[in-house]
């Protein structure tokens, strides 16, 4: 949208929907914006409906345009049967260096947000620096929240040497020995967006025998502290300080301004000798916002106050602001000034000059008190207030402990009550949390184990267990044995039950109606471009009883028809079947309540479909249950489609392609029911199997509500007799692919209704690989094979992509490790023959 607006000669101005409505109206009027393109979510739609009233109050109007879908903008995209009629765009007209090409805005947390206009020259300077150290990353389709734990784990996993973070993360990491140990190995950790408490910064840099090391080589100082650096910048002028190695880590709170920036300092003539920071337009740097003039040149006055280093004149520290704005650890800003105005209306408040002349602290010539002087004068009073606040926050007045520390249900109910009292409303036990009430009551318990548990609760605990239910399980574990480690099986079981409860609700009630017999089947089938899906589609198209097939697949840049042709060719299926008149390709988004379909297509399926076969599913054995929630939501949306059917033959039958992994890892003598699997069995499975189990339970509830359902639990599909096609990303082909490099296939103990010795299978693969390996490969035990592959992959010198091609089994390493453990257990019991 932004690039399209630029191509059209417009100035794009993205506005955050989190901005308050008067602020949005102010931004639109102050920039004389005439066109607003909005949509894409219910939140934005609700904001737009209210925005018109705010605009009317300030006598300003704009034209609203609904955000178009990609299909409406480029209807031929992915259509391989006809050539695109789009013609190349005409060349862009010349734009001067000071021409405005886009606008951003401030947060508006301290009043009305301000628009910040970006000119071409400034943006271009950012573009030309990209090759010096920036890379382009493709984000996951479902991004995770970057908590401090996930951030430090990702940094460690990628062997990161330089990192940029917010001060709040550093504060949390400073409390974790493992995190500090890793930070000390990094060459630099840059923080910005807010201040870092001096005590925290000093604690991080003072991790070795000395604070001062006169060297630039980190490797020579394994016992030095964390190399933290302060970074300074703003939307109005960009980043303007240098970040380089320091000869003294204790200077972490100071910054050095770039020599390419014309930095000026306006003295405040106070006892701290502070200066206001100002940036003047120069040949190398031009602030995006200009609000002053220095020596006849336009400039930007920041209102930030700095003091000079006592011994190093090129280093400066930030000590406050002229406007009393407070910057919090998470980068958010607030201004106590408006609060003071409100307080002044109270009869209990009086002006500071109404009782006696003010001689201390001294005043500025402008007539107001210097902030730094006030803070120093009242430092002891402020400290005492915070101590009182902490004392009050730890009190247990009015907070009763749970009925029992030995019951997760009692602890969950207790936490829920506490959160509800704090918020003044009911909360969902799956979605809210509390910290202060939890710690205070744990401390107040007479049980020594419970008191010890209180010492294990910190802010990071809440990030890791963000819901009431998860927190209750953790507290139960702590109170029981003082260990923060929760049994993974118990935790998985809680997650499975919570996911089932979330989606197993509000099934439509069925009304009695006359049902006509089915003469011809009209089938909806999802996920037809994969291995199983292609065969399903081929058999449906060959079946004379079926008169129509909707092939539903997620939208692809290649086009689903082209993907289907490629899949049919790979599996030697009849390509002429794809020319059948009964076949309808449908691009879909299963996460959307209406599946991403047009009203016409959705209603057509409701009127005509007699069978729904749900085969599409994300396949990734490394992901947790929560990562499969979009797939579970898609299954529920398809079930809702079935329940809302108006077909004369009644509700369509619903078939679901599940997996034997719903039952977890097998064991000797264990049997699997062909009727229903319990969540307890799935708790030992991987996230993929758990997600399939959740969906099975939804089908069971749907069946109880009147829908005919069928669940098919599939195992490893090895292709067909005609083509022998086997998806290369499946786990068995991955094992074989990794075996080629090490020339050692593994032996695994398996069970099957018609067992074939695994050695025979591996020997068959080994024989087929002779043309590549020039000899029959020896077969080794699974655990030994796994160890060799891990070591070889770790020592591989190529790129990550090449490493995965050479050792594909490492993509599912955690799954392979679990199989090794299961194989070892079976071997130890000697109940399954090779």
From TrEMBL:
Gene3D superfamilies tied to this protein: N-terminal domain of ligase-like, NAD(P)-binding Rossmann-like Domain
Domain of life: Eukaryota
Residues covered by region (Disordered): 347-366
Keyword field contains Phosphoprotein: yes
Thioester reductase (TE) domain segment(s): 525-749
Coiled-coil regions listed: none
Database matches in SUPFAM superfamilies: Acetyl-CoA synthetase-like (SSF56801), NAD(P)-binding Rossmann-fold domains (SSF51735)
InterPro entries per UniProt: Adenylate-forming_Reductase, AMP-binding_CS, AMP-dep_synth/lig_dom, ANL_N_sf, FAR_NAD-bd, NAD(P)-bd_dom_sf
Biased composition (Polar residues): 357-366
PROSITE patterns: AMP_BINDING (PS00455)
PANTHER family: ENZYME, PUTATIVE (JCVI)-RELATED (PTHR43439:SF2), PHENYLACETATE-COENZYME A LIGASE (PTHR43439)
Name of protein: L-aminoadipate-semialdehyde dehydrogenase
Organism: Rhizoctonia solani
């Amino acid at each position: 949208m932004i690039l399209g607006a630029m191509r059209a000669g417009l100035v794009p101005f993205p506005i955050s929907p989190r901005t308050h409505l008067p602020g949005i109206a102010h931004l639109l009027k102050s920039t004389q914006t005439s066109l607003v393109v909005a949509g894409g979510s219910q939140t934005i739609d609700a904001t737009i409906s209210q925005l018109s009233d705010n605009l009317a109050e300030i006598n300003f109007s704009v034209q609203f345009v609904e955000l178009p879908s990609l299909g409406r903008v480029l209807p031929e995209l992915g259509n391989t049967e006809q050539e695109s009629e789009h013609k190349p765009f005409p060349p862009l007209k010349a734009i001067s260096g000071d021409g405005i090409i886009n606008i951003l805005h401030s947060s508006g947390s301290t009043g009305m947000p301000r628009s910040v206009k970006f000119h071409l020259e400034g943006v271009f300077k950012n573009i030309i620096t990209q090759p010096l150290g920036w890379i382009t990353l493709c984000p996951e389709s479902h991004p995770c929240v970057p908590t401090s734990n996930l951030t430090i784990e990702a940094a460690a996993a990628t062997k990161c040497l330089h990192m940029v973070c917010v001060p709040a993360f550093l504060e949390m990491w400073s409390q974790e020995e493992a995190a500090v140990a890793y930070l000390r190995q990094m060459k630099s950790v840059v923080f910005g967006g807010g201040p870092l408490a001096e005590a925290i910064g000093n604690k991080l840099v003072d991790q070795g025998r000395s604070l001062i090391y006169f060297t630039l080589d980190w490797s020579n100082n394994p016992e030095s502290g964390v190399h933290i650096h302060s970074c300074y910048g703003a939307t109005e002028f960009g980043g303007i300080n240098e970040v380089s190695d320091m000869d003294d880590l204790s200077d972490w709170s100071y910054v050095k301004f770039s020599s390419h920036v014309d930095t000026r300092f306006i003295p405040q003539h106070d006892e701290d000798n502070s200066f206001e920071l100002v940036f003047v337009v120069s040949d190398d740097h031009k602030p995006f916002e200009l609000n002053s003039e220095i020596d006849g040149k336009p400039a930007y006055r920041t209102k930030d106050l700095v003091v000079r280093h006592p011994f190093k004149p090129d280093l400066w520290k930030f000590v406050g602001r002229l406007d009393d704005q407070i910057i919090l650890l998470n980068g958010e800003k607030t201004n106590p000034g408006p609060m003071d105005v409100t307080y002044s209306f109270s009869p209990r408040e009086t002006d500071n000059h109404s009782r006696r002349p003010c001689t201390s602290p001294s005043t500025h010539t402008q007539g107001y008190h210097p902030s730094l002087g006030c803070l120093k004068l009242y430092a002891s009073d402020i400290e005492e207030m915070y101590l009182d606040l902490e004392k009050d926050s730890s009190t247990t007045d009015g907070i009763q402990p749970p009925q029992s520390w030995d019951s997760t249900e009692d602890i969950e109910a207790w936490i829920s009550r506490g959160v509800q009292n704090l918020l003044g409303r009911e909360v969902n036990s799956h979605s809210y949390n509390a910290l202060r009430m939890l710690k205070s009551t744990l401390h107040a318990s007479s049980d020594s184990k419970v008191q010890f548990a209180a010492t294990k609760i910190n802010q990071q605990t809440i990030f890791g267990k963000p819901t009431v239910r998860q927190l209750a399980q953790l507290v139960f574990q702590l109170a029981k044995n003082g260990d923060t480690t929760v049994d993974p099986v118990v935790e998985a079981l809680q997650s499975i039950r919570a996911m089932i409860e979330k989606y197993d609700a509000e099934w439509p009630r069925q009304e009695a109606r006359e049902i006509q017999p089915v003469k011809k089947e009209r089938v909806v089938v999802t996920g037809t471009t994969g291995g199983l899906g292609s065969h399903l589609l081929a058999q449906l198209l060959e079946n004379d009883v079926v008169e129509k097939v909707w092939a539903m697949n997620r939208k692809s840049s290649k086009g689903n028809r082209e993907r289907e042709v490629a899949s049919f060719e790979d599996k030697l299926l009849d390509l002429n079947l794809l020319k059948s008149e009964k076949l309808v390709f449908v691009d879909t988004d299963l996460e959307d309540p209406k599946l991403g379909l047009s009203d016409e297509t959705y209603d057509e399926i409701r009127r005509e479909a007699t069978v729904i076969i749900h085969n599409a599913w994300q396949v990734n054995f490394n992901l947790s249950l929560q990562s499969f929630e979009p797939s579970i939501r898609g299954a529920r949306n398809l079930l809702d489609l079935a329940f809302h059917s108006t077909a004369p033959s009644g509700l369509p039958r619903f078939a679901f392609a599940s997996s034997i992994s719903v039952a977890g890892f097998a064991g000797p003598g264990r049997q699997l029911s062909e009727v229903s699997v319990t969540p307890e069995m799935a708790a030992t499975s991987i996230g993929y199997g758990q997600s399939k189990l959740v969906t099975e339970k939804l089908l069971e509830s749907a069946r109880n509500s009147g829908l005919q359902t069928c669940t098919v639990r599939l195992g490893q599909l090895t292709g067909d007799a005609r083509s022998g096609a086997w998806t290369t990303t499946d786990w068995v082909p991955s094992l074989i692919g990794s075996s080629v490099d090490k020339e050692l296939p593994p032996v695994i103990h398996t069970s099957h209704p018609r067992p074939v010795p695994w050695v025979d299978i591996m020997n068959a693969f080994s024989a087929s690989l002779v043309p590549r390996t020039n000899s029959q490969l020896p077969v080794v035990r699974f655990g030994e094979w796994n160890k060799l592959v891990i070591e070889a992959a770790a020592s591989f010198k190529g790129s990550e992509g090449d490493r995965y091609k050479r050792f594909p089994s490492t993509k599912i390493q955690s799954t392979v490790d679990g199989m090794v453990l299961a194989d070892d257990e079976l071997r130890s019991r000697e109940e399954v023959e090779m």
